[in-house]
Amino acid sequence: MQQAYTLIKAKEEISKLKKLEDLDGHKLVAIGRGIGEEIHSDVSATQLYKFHEHIVRFAVKVEAQKANLISGKSVDVKDAKLLSYHLAYAAARIKKEREKEKMKELANFFDVALDKVETANDLVRLRQLSEAIVAYHKYAGGR
Which residues are within 8 A (CB) of 44 and not within 5 positions of it... i.e. 6 or more apart? Predict the structure, then answer.
């Protein structure tokens, strides 16, 4: 049976990894389920989707650049860390204290995950992790 992950336990698990691509599929799903269930009543689906969309857009840019489909300024995978300010901004805009704290915890979790993004494979894993959280948030009845 898989361990139930809270945001705190998931953050600890991610911080142990050398790189995000080392997160195995079973743990990724368990973390996504645990976080999705934990935040479903405090983080709105819109807030979560907006952040997930930033991850997807960044990943698409990196993939397009890798395939030489776009030109111009090069996109460094390590710049994924820049995505963290989107969650910080979302947390700052929330009025209700409980919801704000949960969003801050989610931002802290993603800060740790973003620190582990060094390669395109890590970015793929980040995208999968975000997708799992979004899916289980919705499954748990996310608002």
Answer: 142, 143
